[in-house]
Specification:
By secondary structure, the protein is an alpha/beta fold. About 40% of the residues lie in helices and about 15% in strands. The protein contains 10 helices and 10 strands. Strands 1, 2, 5, 6, 7, 8, 9 and 10 form an 8-stranded parallel beta sheet that branches. Helix 5 runs parallel beside helix 6 and helix 9 crosses helix 10. The protein starts with 7 loop residues before the first helix and ends with a strand.
């Protein structure tokens, strides 16, 4: 999961985006590539999602070798967790100079800083999160979310085997979505920018152009896109929560479609005043039967 805007620290402070009690709590960090690693702890809070990232263009920019993709991530994640635990850090690794007691400031308010592991579809990443006992943030931007259930169960099993309590093994999902007054309006508003973005990415990666038929398929009851009116989006969130065995956090990214400022603000308002209350009401009656999805945050 990568940072999707050039200056998240500036964007998060804009009061216009703090509407409908939707708060900015998520930060995504490209742990394998951002240098130095210490900057993530200093800049991002109160929750940090660390992931390997799916784009490889930055490797040559930072003078890194693509074959070190996984070892870079493992090493820098280890460094991040060491920094989280200690103000003055003694650490050495293969891919960057050692730390010999340097202090990392400022320290986060939370102790410890919540660090979640961002993953895509690589089985080893799910298992790594479980072994470390880190909460899991699954990026589901296509396909059918229920297909991630076996990977999530492997995470939970790895965590149990490593001795971590079940309440520590939290699962969240990162989704693409948009809310409007009607499902038809939402679908039509979101499609042009979404298609343009994914067609451009696909041109670099060898994917076919995004079509309306493929897009519409993702809008169905089991599709990954959380696009529709408040009731439709609520239903899909509840379905994902059930099909994945319970999730505790949802991030909702709208920026991929390059929507107008007015449409974004209206969507944030609908998320806060319609979707979130509907989800909470539906889940409140099921607390004895299923985990609650307790936090949802818009990433506009």
């Amino acid at each position: 999961m990568g940072i999707i805007i050039s200056s998240p620290l500036k964007l998060e402070k804009k009061p216009a985006l703090r509407q409908a009690e939707v708060s900015w709590k998520e930060r995504a960090s490209l742990t394998a590539r951002v240098s130095p690693r210490e900057q993530s702890l200093q800049q991002y809070g109160p929750l940090l999602v660390a992931g390997r990232g799916s784009f490889i263009e930055a490797f040559p920019l930072f003078g890194l070798e693509l074959e070190d993709y996984d070892s870079l991530f493992a090493e820098k994640l280890d460094l991040l967790l060491k920094i989280r635990e200690n103000t003055h850090v003694q650490w050495s690794g293969q891919h960057r100079p050692a730390l010999t007691g340097q202090g990392v400031y400022p320290r986060p308010l939370q102790n410890p800083l919540p660090v979640w592991l961002g993953v895509g579809g690589t089985p080893g990443s799910f298992i790594r999160a479980g072994v470390l006992g880190l909460p899991l943030m699954v990026a589901i931007i296509g396909g059918e979310p229920h297909r991630f259930r076996p990977l999530i169960e492997s995470y939970r099993e790895a965590g149990r085997r490593a001795g971590h309590p079940a309440d520590q093994l939290k699962v969240g999902i990162h989704s693409l979505g948009y809310v409007a007054e009607s499902a038809a309006k939402a679908a039509d508003h979101f499609f042009p920018g979404y298609a343009r973005s994914f067609t451009e990415i696909g041109r670099e990666r060898g994917w076919p152009p995004m079509t309306r038929a493929h897009y519409d398929a993702q809008l169905g009851p089991t599709g990954a896109l959380l696009v529709g009116d408040p009731e439709t989006v609520t239903g899909k969130i509840l379905h994902v929560n059930e099909s994945l065995g319970g999730i505790s956090r949802l991030t909702f990214q709208m920026s991929v479609a390059a929507l107008s400022h007015a449409k974004m603000l209206r969507a944030i308002e609908l998320l806060g005043t319609r979707v979130a209350p509907l989800v909470r009401t539906a889940l409140a009656s099921e607390t004895a039967a299923a985990p609650l999805l307790i936090d949802s945050h818009a990433v506009a």
